[in-house]
Amino acid sequence: MIVEQLVVTHAGSRGALLPLLHAIQREIGFIPDEAVPMIAAGLNLSRADVHGVVTFYHDFRRQPAGRHVVKFCRAEACQARGSAAIETAMALKLGVAMGDTRDDGHISLEAVYCLGLCATGPNAMVDGQPFSRIDHAAVSRIADMVSV
Ligand code: FES
């Protein structure tokens, strides 16, 4: 199993947890809950330590991502530009709650906390492509884009 191999590769290195978690996510797309005891044992940490790091960092997924990933900015500058209402519209239009993946596995909607485009919010990243000044019309365009 790839996770076991990665744990063995990283065991014994100082500060190995974050590099190991990134390596697992890069290889299989998420950090399975079942991997937490193996990671803890391999790095001589408690399961709570590993679980705490996995759940603290928004970049780590605990389930496979959808085919399309919409990362929507929730940080202050975008909030000041009306992102909360746009986020609600986005979730409704995409048919998925923030932080979740649609039941058909087609779309994931994830929170991010600043994309570095603060002056042009509300902002999102759709399959790695930035979108700025998102209004209700843009929400519809994004929904059409990720519908295929
Ligand atoms: S606050 Fe949204 S991009 Fe910076």
UniProtKB/TrEMBL annotation:
Pfam families, per the entry: 2Fe-2S_thioredx
Cofactor note: Binds 1 [2Fe-2S] cluster.
Gene3D superfamilies: Glutaredoxin, NADH-quinone oxidoreductase subunit E
Family recorded in the similarity comment: Belongs to the complex I 24 kDa subunit family.
InterPro entries referenced in this protein's UniProt entry, alphabetically: NuoE-like (IPR002023), NuoE_N (IPR041921), Thioredoxin-like_sf (IPR036249)
Cofactor entry: [2Fe-2S] cluster
Residues the entry annotates as binding [2Fe-2S] cluster: C73, C78, C114, C118
Keyword annotations: 2Fe-2S, Iron, Iron-sulfur, Metal-binding, Plasmid
Catalytic activity as recorded in UniProt: a quinone + NADH + 5 H(+)(in) = a quinol + NAD(+) + 4 H(+)(out)
NCBIfam families registered for this protein in UniProt: PRK05988.1
Annotated protein name in UniProt: Formate dehydrogenase subunit gamma
Gene Ontology MF, one: NADH dehydrogenase activity
